[in-house]
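re: ur question from earlier - yeah i can do the single chain one, its not a big deal. heres the input i used so u can compare w yours
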Amino acid sequence: MWYRNALDGGIIAIPPGMHTLIVGRTGSGKSRLISQILINLLPGILNGTAIAYGVDLKNGIELGAWEHWLQGLADEPDKVVSLLENVDRTRQERNRNLREHNQTKVAIGPDTPVIVLVIDELAELSGAVGKDDKARQEQCQRLLDRILRLGRSAGITVVAASQDPRKESLPLRDRFPNRIALALGSKAETIMMMGEDAVKDGCAPHTIPTDLPGTGYWHDLLHRRAVRFRTINSAGLEGFE
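and the output i got, formated as tokens:
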């Protein structure tokens, strides 16, 4: 998976298994970035080397346009548990097969395509008050936690987005090693999301103006550098049937 940086034409890659969290305030361009990632994943979906699932509890407003290319879309709370159980079942089967053949990770291809789970507004999977809703969310959290912890070897990558970087809203935040920050409200939120080392290296999403949607920072941990980027305008889904 990847997306292009319109500022310099470079490519920012998301390696298979590198669970990625995208956070930014309302209107910062999270949906635009997710669309770019999915557009660039389409060739793999079309040739059978990639499968994508979606969770969108805003009634499918953000991911509904992608339903034709998704293996499954959960746009209601009752559907999320079933979708996560399905993904986790595949994870179990793949990991069991790896153990039987003394292997440590799957070989991505038509027989074992990479699985990408996209979650729009991750915070909707926590914070319920009612007994039934809370029980459902706790089940979702357990399933997602298992996928995040054990899914990398099975070729599963989770890409999740949220408006709020706080741990109270994102109890599984620490399971995402790859962080992308669009415009945030304060330096404290930047540190909360990206970490103090990222700020020292130049990540400053709290300085992004409100009129620059799609602009953000990614922390290149390997080279200890902040990468400021801007996503290109989505061309839409025309041409993909």
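DSSP finds five helices and ten strands in the chain. not sure if urs matches, ping me
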